[in-house]
Every structure is written in C-alpha cells, then in structure tokens.
Design a protein that fits this description.
mainly alpha
Length: about 200
C-alpha cells in the first residue's frame, strides 16, 4: 500500500522521524554529553534508519546543534531601551534559562569556548567539535554580540565580556545552587558596565 502525498502538505512521517531522532539525541546529550551523541547511538535509540537521520541532519554537528536548540532555545537580543536596559534584560533571560537547565547551560557554554569533559579528542572529533563550537557560538552568543556592541568602548573582547556576564550566572546555579534574581542581575550588569 502506498500513501499519496497531498500537494502542499508535509508527510507526517517526516515530523515523527525528526521528533524521534531529536528526542534520542536530547536524551543522549543529557545523559552523556557531546560525545554520547553519535549517529549510531541516535539511530539505535530512536529506531530510525541511518538514511532517514541523514535526510534530516546532514552530519553529526547539525544533529548536535539541533539537540542543543531543543534543550536550550537561543535567546533573541532585546530591542528597545538603553544599552543597560537591553543588557539587563538579556542577562535576566540568560539567568532564567540557566536556572531551568543548569547542567545543559554549562554544557552549551563549555562547547562554545571549546571545553569538553571527555579527555583529548582524536583528529576527527576535533574537527567535529570545532564545527559544533562555531555553531554554538553563532547561535548562543549572537544576542550578546548585538547588545555588547552598544555597551563596550572600542575593540573590547566580546568573548571575555560574555564570560564575565554568564560565568557568575553559571556559578550561582551550579556551585551555590541559588537563583540569580533581579537584584543580582542588576548588580552584575552595573558592575560590568562600570568596568567596561
């Protein structure tokens, strides 16, 4: 029996297979980090054929990036207001996201700066991690780039600036296990701007 495709309608099997693939990738990422998300592991856990996985995701880097986006949707840069107001809204949004999934937020930011908890990667994995890092940086740091451009004089190092803002949020969530409330975020932003 064949199914006929109605013009203009997407085949629901595509959505089901993509959902199964992403669910498996997200579970593997949550359980074992970046190295656990292999094509073999995802196809095994999802029950989806390798060829179907490659129709949705041309490579492992795209699959990992989609899993990251599923776990931690990227933030949009805030619009309107003074640079301080925009930066404060972004820091508060980042704090909320970190508090919702602190370990995953740490993993995303570690990938963004090139850290991985599994020892020295081989040559192939270094290339894959570098591609993933580029994607993570582009996706998760973009809102900071947009806002920090208005806050930083001259040629300030945006990576260092973002780390100064996100680092304390991660420290609060992972080490101190306390929320980064509105007062903490305001103090963090004001201290950052006073030293910029």
């Amino acid at each position: 029996m064949t199914t006929q495709q109605v013009p203009g309608r997407r085949d629901p099997r595509l959505d089901r297979s993509r959902s199964a693939i992403l669910s498996a990738a997200v579970a593997l990422l949550s359980e074992g980090g970046v190295r656990a998300v292999t094509i073999e592991a995802v196809t095994s856990r999802s029950g989806v054929a390798r060829s179907t996985l490659y129709r949705h995701f041309p490579n492992n880097t795209e699959l990992l990036a989609a899993a990251f986006r599923e776990l931690l949707p990227p933030l949009d840069p805030p619009a309107g207001g003074t640079p301080r107001e925009r930066l404060l809204r972004l820091v508060r949004a980042q704090a909320g996201q970190i508090e919702g999934a602190p370990a995953m937020a740490a993993l995303v930011w570690m990938a963004a700066i090139g850290l991985d908890s599994g020892g020295a990667p081989d040559e192939g994995e270094r290339g894959r991690l570098a591609a993933l890092r580029e994607h993570v940086v582009d996706t998760y740091r973009r809102p900071f780039d947009a806002v920090l451009a208005d806050c930083l004089p001259g040629e300030e190092d945006v990576d260092f600036a973002a780390a100064r803002l996100v680092g304390p949020l991660l420290f609060n969530a992972l080490i101190l296990r306390r929320p980064s409330d509105a007062a903490f975020c305001a103090r963090l932003v004001d201290d950052f701007l006073a030293r910029a």
